[in-house]
Automatic annotation (TrEMBL), chain A:
Similarity section: Belongs to the FAD-dependent oxidoreductase family.
Cofactor(s) required for function per UniProt: FAD
SUPFAM superfamilies, per database record: FAD/NAD(P)-binding domain
TM helices/strands, residue ranges: none
Pfam families from the UniProt entry: Pyr_redox_2 (PF07992)
Sorted UniProt keywords: FAD, Flavoprotein
Protein name: NADH dehydrogenase
A GO MF label: oxidoreductase activity
FAD/NAD(P)-binding domain sequence ranges: 3-291
From TrEMBL, chain B:
Record PROSITE patterns: 4FE4S_FER_1, 4FE4S_FER_2
Record flagged with keyword Lyase: no
Native source organism of the sequence: Roseivirga echinicomitans
Keywords attached to this entry: 4Fe-4S, Electron transport, Iron, Iron-sulfur, Membrane, Metal-binding, Transmembrane, Transmembrane helix, Transport
Keyword Zinc: no
Domain 4Fe-4S ferredoxin-type: 393-421, 424-453
GO cellular component terms, A-Z: plasma membrane
The protein's name: 4Fe-4S ferredoxin-type domain-containing protein
InterPro entries cross-referenced by the UniProt entry: 4Fe4S_Fe-S-bd, 4Fe4S_Fe_S_CS, Electron_Trans/Redox
Transmembrane portions of the chain: 20-41, 47-71, 92-111, 145-165, 177-198, 247-268, 307-327, 347-367
GO molecular function, one term: 4 iron, 4 sulfur cluster binding
Length: 444, 475
């Protein structure tokens, strides 16, 4: 029986712990400075908006941990001594380990703007950030958000839920256009404005101005415009939270460097989730993967390695999802902001301007490479299977009804989509009826 | 975190947003309620004038308020502030409403005199307000039950309209809500009153002889309608003066229980009843909607639920069996136990009145809108067993897309921990799910789909969530 110690009680650390428990009898300790129990970081916004309370964001009831013999410790790890296999906490205590798992997540980026440390200026990552935001957003005349990514738009939605006027500074020409292709990105621009958010595209932050009490009172943009505000949300990405590893001998670059087994350069020390950086990226994936799903998958793999079944992290086909205000977004496979030279592209948009579908496929073979769907839902299992089987775009469109995941009684769009595809590509694809037999075959 | 700001609104819009039209609509709706209270307090009102004004203001005001509030916002999920508002987060306002509702039920059941019902003589107070309507439909003064049925129907219609605007982007919710509204208005309210008006029910002959009464809400099926097999009820349905309608109700009632319910539940789940036609469900889904997140998701609550609902079911089966035994043998006791005082009366008192009425509705603002449906209703228990073991209905989970946010579990009125399944990639097959579809609506990642499919692979628990090739199924 080993003594496994995990730093970080986010999805990565907790998935590791749960699966180690399923597979073994090892002693497991999970340490976090943030909260006593695992909660869903992705749900922070809903607490602020009053959809849920903190307790609802905890995926397991509090008795779960003791019942599964997962020890929880609320403490901040200041230093890791890999020679003595000991952790040093900020209160001076120490703890030994046989195997160490680093799952410390991320911290919000700051790019050295003048005034970035003023009161009323903050990022949104942790539970404490949310508490700060709660305190910082009372009686505002305006809030400014800097950075047009997923957390930026969430923060805008949060503030709008309380009727706070929001100006949203986005450096890019169009919202999230380094990820979203033109049509999708334009759709979200429109939707942001529909929510009465003052969207400023191609606008950078230059400076944050203080009032006489050290609190933000305005920002100055790259064009020299001054915008009065009492709150600034900095949402310009996150980077690995690895300060505690200084001097530990564990190799780091931007994140903790790991091999495919999530092992660091030091024996019996592993890292995963947002804080890990792969020496060799997996295929088209980034070397640091900062999403919920990848943290979970890494945890599933690492638990096996920890239980003497060495297992590489081998993610399957890429998928992701988000929600931009009221518009849901799902993606399967790879859809780049701009189609690559060897790719063909198809884009359909509903006349209401809030529903769309994009497909990308290989020119030479017709094989589907990726799909973006906004405003309607598609079945994960369908696309996963179709990618594995190397299905062509024609095949996928023919069977599109099998993949529809919208609630029952919803209007469907397959016929319209295929008509447009046939028109544009000189094809004559016929839509097949939904088949339960094929749908059940996806799941096996 | 202390984010509770006292706020009396029951829907999303922040008070700052409330415009003139909304305010006027709200005042109109409140005026309707005020008329009820004034009538109750025996203020001298001309019922023939004020009763229609009250009904129109309550339905009209709520409809305009809902339309105005939601239509000026983009369509989407409207749960902002639910846990901040006093009414929807067990604040002082919630307690006040809860106490008022509970008090109303107590008077209605046991002290109808206090709501104005006068057995022989002229009604007073609240009941008297509805005399003109009752006179117009069936030519006799209102009873406390007529008053209650009318208010119940108004609540479903008015707050159903609000729900429709709130969920206008979701066709499942839209059609389902229209269905519960029609079911209440037509089957539970209008048809029974018309039958009485046409002398097919509840008739006193010119000779002064009472011909009996049966429940003419056809969709109120035994065992929810627990007195269906009571002798007075069976006799009334066979009463000559009521034929052929009475017999139709007798046969339909039994056929619905024995054939309709199992077949429909097999095909589409118990939702066909619970969230599409049932009267209790209808009120829960409309008037009760602002309280759906208050149901307990704890494992302990699930244990209590299974224990309680099945006990009630056994109770109603035994009580009914004994009742039928008494009916066919003509005795009034079994094994020396009096059928009325030892079986029927306790069931009516504890289950029929206290559980389904007082706790079921009176406690909406404390325990959520489906306490009766989840913990008590024997009809739900019966269908739940079918749904769990022999049905095509399930909620399919969309592969690996769940982010464990908890919206689904929070807004499940039946207290099902939907997330516990979704985050494992497992389908949800649960006896208690009433198929309201709200978990699927509030999920921000498109993870949940209510559907009816082959029973094969209905319960599948994947060995690993899809998207991860690290772990092969073979090992
Ligand atoms: C607002 C927001 C919304 C998001 N929405 C989505 C989404 O919709 N979909 C998606 O895929 N991803 C989303 N993400 C990203 C996703 O939440 C992260 O990728 C994921 O939570 C990372 O998990 P993790 O376990 O690696 O790290 P974390 O969840 O960050 O957990 C690390 C834990 O370790 C603790 N810790 C760190 N250092 C120490 C120390 N020295 N001592 C003690 N404890 C320490 C931290 O306090 C923290 O609790 C979102 C992120 C945010 C902030
Ligand atoms: S599981 Fe979903 S559909 Fe079923 S009762 Fe709960 S919220 Fe409604
Ligand atoms: S609402 Fe959706 S994403 Fe959130 S926990 Fe439920 S299934 Fe998962």
């Amino acid at each position: 029986m080993h003594n496994i110690v995990i730093i970080g009680n986010g999805i990565s650390g907790i998935t590791t712990a749960r699966h180690v428990r399923k597979l073994s009898d090892h002693k497991i300790t999970v340490i976090s400075a943030e909260t006593d129990h695992f909660f869903s970081r992705t749900a922070l916004m809903y607490i602020y908006m009053g959809h849920m309370k903190y307790e609802h964001t905890k995926p397991y009831e509090d008795w779960f941990w003791e019942k599964n013999r997962i020890d929880l410790k609320r403490a901040f790890v200041e230093k890791v001594d890999t020679d003595g296999k000991t952790l040093h906490f900020s209160d001076g205590e120490t703890m030994g380990y046989d195997k160490l798992v680093i799952a410390t997540g991320s911290k919000p980026n700051k790019f050295g703007w003048p005034g970035q440390d003023l009161e009323g200026v903050q990022g949104l990552y942790s539970y404490q950030d949310l508490e700060t935001m709660e305190a910082n957003t009372k009686n505002l005349s305006r809030a400014v958000i800097v950075g047009g990514g997923l957390i930026g738009i969430e923060m805008a939605e949060m503030l709008r839920s309380r009727n706070i006027p929001v100006t949203f500074l986005v450096r890019e020409e169009s919202f999230w256009d380094n990820v979203l292709p033109y049509g999708e990105s334009q759709m979200i621009n429109r939707h942001i404005k529909e929510h009465h958010i003052d969207l400023r595209l191609a606008t950078e932050l230059k400076e944050i101005i203080s009032d006489e009490n050290g609190r933000v009172k305005a920002v100055i943009t790259g064009t020299g415009e001054t915008i009065q505000c009492e709150f600034v949300g900095l949402t310009v990405g996150v980077s690995p939270n690895i300060g505690l590893l200084k001097g530990s001998g564990i190799e780091t670059k931007r994140g903790v460097l790991v091999d495919p087994f999530l092992k660091t350069n030091i024996d019996n020390v592993y890292a995963l989730g947002d804080c890990a950086e792969f020496l060799e990226p997996n295929g088209e994936r980034k070397s640091i993967e900062q999403v919920w799903y990848t943290g979970r998958m890494m945890g599933e793999a690492l638990a096996r390695t920890l239980c003497d079944k060495p297992t590489k992290y081998e993610p399957g086909h890429w998928f992701n999802s988000a929600k931009f205000l009221d518009i849901e977004y799902q993606t399967y496979g790879w859809v780049w902001a701009k189609a690559k030279d060897n790719e063909n592209d198809f884009y359909w948009e509903h006349k209401n301007g809030k529903i769309c579908l994009r497909l990308r496929w290989e020119k030479s073979t017709g094989k589907l490479l990726g799909v973006n769907n906004l405003g309607f839902r598609l079945r994960h299992h369908a696309f996963d299977k179709w990618f594995k089987e190397g299905r062509t775009v024609d095949y996928v469109l023919e069977h599109l009804k099998d993949a529809n995941f919208d609630p029952e009684l919803y209007k469907t769009y397959e016929a319209e989509i295929i008509a447009q595809f046939n028109r544009e590509n000189g094809k004559n694809i016929q839509l097949k009826k939904k088949s339960w037999k094929r749908i059940l075959d996806f799941v096996s | 975190m202390s984010t509770t700001e006292p706020n009396l609104s029951i829907s999303n819009p922040h008070p700052e947003d409330t415009d003139v039209i909304q305010k006027v609509a709200l005042v109109v709706a409140c005026f309707g309620v005020l008329i009820l209270l004034a009538a109750w307090a025996n203020v001298a009102l001309d019922a023939a004038i004020f009763m229609p004004i009250a009904i129109i203001s309550m339905i009209g005001g709520t409809t305009v308020y809902g339309a105005r509030s939601y239509l000026k916002q983009p369509e989407g999920i409207k749960n902002n502030g639910v846990w901040h508002f006093s009414l929807t987060s067990r604040g002082a306002f919630a307690w006040a409403v809860g106490i008022l509702l509970t008090g109303f039920y107590i008077l209605l059941y046991w002290f109808p005199g206090y709501v104005g019902f006068v057995q022989s003589g002229e009604n007073q107070g609240l009941v008297a307000l509805f005399d003109p309507l009752s006179m117009a439909i069936k030519g006799r003064p209102a009873s406390q039950w007529f008053m209650y049925g009318t208010l119940y129907t108004i609540a479903i219609l008015a707050l159903g309209m609000k729900f429709i605007f709130k969920y206008r982007h979701n066709r499942y919710q839209l059609i389902r809500t229209i269905s519960v509204m029609i079911a209440q208005l037509v089957f539970a309210y209008t048809i029974p009153e018309i039958l009485a008006a046409l002398n097919y029910n509840d008739v006193t002959t010119t000779a002064g002889e009472y011909a009996g009464y049966y429940d003419a809400d056809i969709k109120n099926v035994w065992p929810l309608d627990y007195d269906f097999f009571y002798s007075y009820h069976l006799d009334a349905m066979q009463e000559e003066a009521y034929q052929p309608v009475g017999m139709i109700y007798l046969i339909a009632g039994m056929a619905l229980f024995l054939v309709g319910t199992p077949v429909l539940t097999y095909l589409i789940g118990k939702r066909w009843y619970c969230s599409w036609v049932c009267g209790c469900g209808g009120l829960a889904e409309t008037a009760g909607d602002p309280f759906r997140h208050l149901s307990s998701k704890k494992l302990g609550a699930w244990k209590l639920e299974r224990w309680l609902i099945h006990s009630v079911m056994i109770f109603v089966f035994v009580m009914t069996a004994v009742t039928l035994y008494g009916y066919f043998t003509g005795t009034s006791s079994v094994f020396g136990l009096d059928i009325y005082s030892k079986f029927q009366k306790p069931y009516g008192f504890f289950i029929g009145a206290i559980f389904s009425g007082i706790i079921g509705v009176g406690f909406y603002p404390m325990l959520g809108n489906r306490v009766w449906c989840r913990f008590g209703c024997p009809m739900a228990g019966y269908m739940g067993i079918i749904q769990r073991f022999k049905s095509k209905f399930r909620i399919t989970t969309n592969g690996g897309q769940c982010i464990s946010c908890g919206n689904c579990s929070t807004y499940c009125e039946q207290g099902i921990d939907v997330r516990a399944y979704a985050q494992k990639g497992q389908n949800i097959v649960r006896a208690s799910c009433v198929g309201c579809g709200v978990c699927s609506a509030v999920c921000p990642r498109g993870v949940l789909k209510l559907e009816n499919g082959p029973e094969e692979k209905r319960y599948d628990l994947p060995p690993i969530i899809i998207g991860n090739e690290s772990v092969k199924i073979s090992d």
